[in-house]
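Message: Study each token:
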Amino acid sequence: MLESHSTPAGGKLPPGMVLGPDGKPCKVCTGFKAWTKEHSKKAPKSHSKATASAGAASAAAGAIATSAEPSEKSLPRDCPADVERLGRHTWTFLHTTASYFPPSPSLAQKSSMLSLLTSLPTLYPCSSCADELGSYMKSHPPKEAVEGGRSTLERWLCEVHNEVNERLGKEAFNCDNVGQRWRDGWEDGRCD
């Protein structure tokens, strides 16, 4: 994901805030912590007493269930996804789908998988993430990986994910372990 640190008019954006294609702050492209820092100054929306009470209880439950530390802000489970949640769930879906792709797919399965992958740069809600993926796919097209079946698709997707992790300063994943991570479970039995 590319982060924008200034607006088209030259104004500075808060750290972590990303602009969407419309030039406005993009909620799904921005992490919850950065978004709440920018928007905490705004007055909360008014709700009916029942809605506010239910919303507060739900938000509290989500915060408890997702927060590692009480002082750390976390996105309640019942809120729209931020860039981190969207990314985690998308990677889970894509890796799991690749790991259950047939070793020798039919023409229809190949066509469907290729359509899924090539639609992401157009349809993915985070526009900067989608643009980065589109650029990667131009130099590393998924067609050959899809044609090769499960193992080549798993490897290709792992390499895409590692390229994103590298850009974000995260640790790379050992692509030799994709089957254990996304389909079979770890050899030590902790997933059984």
Notes: Residues 49-66 form the longest helix (18 residues).
